[in-house]
Amino acid sequence: MSEQAPWVPPLKPPRILIVDDQPMNVLLAQRVLVPAGFEVRVARSGGEALAVAQESQPDLILLDMHLPDMHGLEVLRRMLESPWGGHLLVVAMSAHATAEDEALWRQAGCAGAIEKPIDVTTFVRDVARWLAGDRREAVQPSTGAPEKKADKFWEVLVANRLATPEQLARAMTAQAATGMRIGQILVEQEHVSEDDVAWAFGHQLGYPYIYPTPDTIDPGVARLLPEAFLREHRVLPILKSGR
Description:
Blueprint lengths: L14 E5 L3 H11 L5 E5 L2 H11 L3 E5 L7 H10 L8 E5 L4 H10 L3 E4 L7 H9 L17 H11 L5 H14 L3 H7 L5 H12 L3 E2 L8 H4 L4 H6 L3 E2 L6
Parallel strand pairs: 1-2, 1-3, 3-4, 4-5
Antiparallel strand pairs: 6-7
């Protein structure tokens, strides 16, 4: 079977409206879509999305289903029932979608659903498919699985001002191109230290971390660790004590 042809933007750039209140998600989508020839508009709430959609008449709306002022389904309903929005093409976005959620969104009028964070290696192709009228889902929705740990790791970095959304967006783009881990990229780009990354992972996993000094490390425990590890790492994960 022949490979799918690459996306070639038309003379008039397709207009995409991204509705999401999370700056990191917006920046990542913009960094992928704009170089591919798309015109991108942004709204960060349901009310703003309704106003921007009415004014700009986008070719595709990527709608986060969990907005600060109203649920995505309410935004969708108002758009599709309005005199100006009945024709709009809307794709739902969520980090926690189940098969039941995705079915409900389609029934309400969405053309499909996409998981957050986006996959930068397939995102442009997915958007092009929707614009061409292909209503298959971009990804299989989860079946109630817990949130991806990577999402929480990024949130910890941003919430504690260890990295900016712009830095994370660049790191995720580099990850797609190189396959390197995001934490490694951030360290090599000198945005964060190895200690910061280790602390963020510890916070994400629910494990406390300590910064050991010779007087805080039990000699018996230290003998179980490789000498190179003790020499090169100042941060050690300490598992929660159990019963």
